[in-house]
Amino acid sequence: MAASTSNALNWFLHRITGTFLIFMLITHFWVQHYDHQAASVTHEVVTEQGAMPDYPEEAKEGVRARFGPDAEATPYQVVMQRLADPVYAVLWKGFNILFLIVALHHGFYGLNNVMTDYIRDPMGRLIARSLSWTVALGLLIIGMYSVITAGW
Amino acid sequence: MAVDTQERPAPTASQEGATAEQDSRFQRYRIRTGMFAWMMHRLTGVGLVVYLIIHIWGLTALTDPETFNALIAKYHSPIFKVGEFALLVAVAYHAMNGLRIVLIDFLGWSPNQKKLFWTLGAVTAVIILVGGWPSIYSLGEWILGPGSMPTLFL
């Protein structure tokens, strides 16, 4: 009974997290790729041999305004103008932690659905489930560490 | 509507090759539009989990400026631009097909579901073209030379 209740709850949560992810991904994409000031990855640039990408004027100005007139707009500094801001840092860190939890639950619940369909042996299922959720927990800890310590 | 398997084909379907016995863990189904959509949903889903693992692992580079800059510089190499576009295709497909599943699950089956399928298909195509344009642009500039691609809304 407990197992079937939790499966129904997870099934429901999978729909909810999926719907949430659409909106969170739109925000994530906008900030990381399209906003000319805050995008750490500029889409329009292909470089070779590890050369640094060039950033738009808005990004350069933003970095100079935060880190001084000599600050260079490197990918790290562009991220930091967002994450080092005392007000927005909390907002973005909160967003990213929520995003991390929702994405991991959605991804690993989905993966478990797929694995349960193809693994028939109960012991095999148990191993696959334990292993995958252990990986998810590890990624949650690693991810939260990256998000929280960024900009310190 | 029942699902037609090769052991139990639809009454009007031809009987050739209908003797397939279940000897593998993969049931052999007739692949129609809905089944194809489901298979692609699984494939993109598993692919996105693999990407999620790499992505979270890669972001540990945020703890060190040099490492992070080197990582992002690598993301601007041509092969990653192709990967970036493939990622957008997988995300857009999985998101829109997932939205379709959620709508059917929560609002119930509707005779308009084919219309929903093709409408969301069109939305997916627009997301891929508009969202993927910067990637296509940068790859075009790299292959055909600077200034050879129209800037459009960039």
Provide structural commentary:
The complex is a heterodimer of chains A (152) and B (154). With 152 residues, chain A is mostly helical. Chain A has a single domain, classed as 3 helical TM bundles of succinate and fumarate reductases (Up-down Bundle), CATH 1.20.1300. Chain A has helices at 2-34, 57-67, 75-83, 86-118, 122-149. Chain A starts with a helix and ends with a helix. Chain B has 154 residues and is mainly α. Chain B folds into two domains: 1-30, no CATH class; 33-144, Fumarate reductase/succinate dehydrogenase, transmembrane subunit (3 helical TM bundles of succinate and fumarate reductases, Up-down Bundle). Chain B is globular. Mean pLDDT of chain B is 82; it is low at 13-19. Chains A and B meet through helix 1, helix 3, helix 4 and helix 5 of A and helix 1, helix 2, helix 3 and helix 4 of B.
Query: Could you say what the CATH topology of chain A is called?
Result: 3 helical TM bundles of succinate and fumarate reductases
Major beta sheet summary of chain B: none
Terminal residue distance of chain B:
47 Å
Report the sheet with the most strands of chain A, covering strand number, pairing sense and barrel closure: none
Helices, strands, pairings?
The complex is a heterodimer of chains A (152) and B (154).
Chain A: H1 2-34, H2 57-67, H3 75-83, H4 86-118, H5 122-149
Helix pairs in contact in A: 1-4, 2-3, 4-5
Chain B: H1 33-58, H2 65-75, H3 78-107, H4 113-144
Helix pairs in contact in B: 1-3, 3-4
